[in-house]
Design goal:
By secondary structure, the protein is α/β, with parallel strands linked by helices. It is about 45% helix and about 15% strand. It is built from 18 helices and 14 strands. The protein has a 6-stranded parallel sheet, sandwiched between helices. A 6-stranded parallel sheet has the order 11-10-9-12-13-14, sandwiched between helices. Strands 7-8 form a two-stranded parallel sheet. The protein binds nicotinamide-adenine-dinucleotide (NAD) and uridine-5'-diphosphate-glucuronic acid (UGA). The site of nicotinamide-adenine-dinucleotide has 27 residues, from helix 5. Pathway: Nucleotide-sugar biosynthesis; UDP-alpha-D-glucuronate biosynthesis; UDP-alpha-D-glucuronate from UDP-alpha-D-glucose: step 1/1.
Amino acid sequence: NTKKITNICCIGAGYVGGPTMAVIAQKCTHIKVTVVDLNKQRIADWNDADLDRLPIYEPGLADVVAEARGRNLFFSTDVDQAIAEAQMIFISVNTPTKTYGVGKGMAADLKYIELCARQIAKVSKDDKIIVEKSTLPVRTAEALRTILTSTGNGVKFDILSSPEFLAEGTAVQDLMNPDRFLIGGEQTESGEVAVQALVDIYLNWVPRENIITTRVWSSELSKLTANAFLAQRVSSINAISALCEKTGADVDEISRAIGADSRIGAKFLKSSVGFGGSCFQKDILNLVYLCQHFNLPEVADYWEQVIKMNDYQKHRFAKNIIDSLFNTVSGKKIAFLGWAFKKDTNDTRESAAIYVADELLQDRAEIHIYDPKVSKEQIFADLCRCEEERRDNLFDEVAKETYCDFLKKQVVVHLDPYTAMQAAHAIAILTEWDEFKTYDWKKVYGDVLKPAFIFDGRNILDKKQLSDIGFEVECIGKR
Ligand code: NAD
Ligand code: UGA
């Protein structure tokens, strides 16, 4: 008993839905893939003839879209039609941290997921396989089933969990050569048919041994666990970086030394100004909330510490800038190189840069920002949101306008890195963009105020070379 899929719909054309479906469409020419979103602008951008204007920047993505779009890959705002036609529906909508009510600041907000389920229930006339692609709390499939079957119209739904493990900046690579794809399904006859249908799709380009199948709950919880483990590695090495700065040990040497132990492994041990991105913090908070919900306070505290350490790391970096600049940055020009949460992406969600800038702005610094991929509008929106969160969403229009005026005075976004650094009191590296290594640092030295401070929040610059030029270089986890 098998089910051959020829028509897929994906709800949510974001960082996951867009690239994931583009790769499925490229690899499975026999499947019609329609990605839908309520956001009209986003869909228009995915359909833009100019591939430089796709809504997200990922190396290699434009080529994949160019090949498949209009052939078997479609972007549309007609959610109902795409749902009605599809045999398999991926749900790839956002699941942010709740900002209100029960579980505020911790639990995942599942309202978008619920809306999808209600829409699918309303529109579906024939049996469908529903795939959870979004990152969800364990046992969400149960809630989905309740909603999907609530119409009582006899349509049968099989629910799978197939969380996405791609990292931004390498999304296309990760999708083309995944360490694994994970599928959680029910151990019933139709559940197994559904699992096999999705296995068959992935098999078009992924070896069978890289496709793991599990129970639904294990699959859901594996995703939160994977992100918690990854973030924990960063917080662990960042914790050691603080001790390195006190003792004269070098955190990069430690990463190399411990990473050579195959049980530890070399990846994800790069000390930094702190992890960012839309998911690590949100998913750990979600995990912590689940543990609290199931009355496991020790487990909750254990994972919460990963976030506390990350907050500490961001704060430590900002405080070091203020301390080094003689205890105040008021009226001083601080140049920021990088705003994205990591290189090779235009995504800024939860970027450490936002929190460092915010802390410096509270000390009345003037911040001059250059990022090769992030727009001025995005940077101002990020800083505004940060203030809003601090005020616990009590941002009335007057307060907002006052703060926007303050930002307009204090923050300048540059299209050229050299003008951003011109006459700066200090330069801070917030993102590890490769191009920063290639700048003419001698020329920069001539243009900045002395002492010429560089705070390298990513340890990417050549400390010795810069010190020889005359810079005062401060790195993470080394003296
Ligand atoms: P995103 O915000 O970029 O995209 C989500 C999209 O869903 C938005 O465009 C939104 O308009 C759309 N949407 C919301 N509700 C809708 C509805 N009812 N109907 C139609 N469209 C709707 O989010 P993302 O970064 O792609 O993340 C999606 C999910 O994948 C999250 O659960 C996230 O945790 C998970 N995830 C993200 C990444 C990543 O690298 N960003 C990686 C793995 C997993
Ligand atoms: C992460 C996971 O790596 C993906 O597997 C997962 O699918 C995704 O979250 C998700 O669920 O959203 P992503 O956040 O895109 O991917 O990027 P990462 O490469 O994991 O980097 C996250 C943050 O950690 C970045 O700010 C990065 O600079 C920082 N980091 C990473 C370090 O500071 N040091 C490291 O050694 C690695």
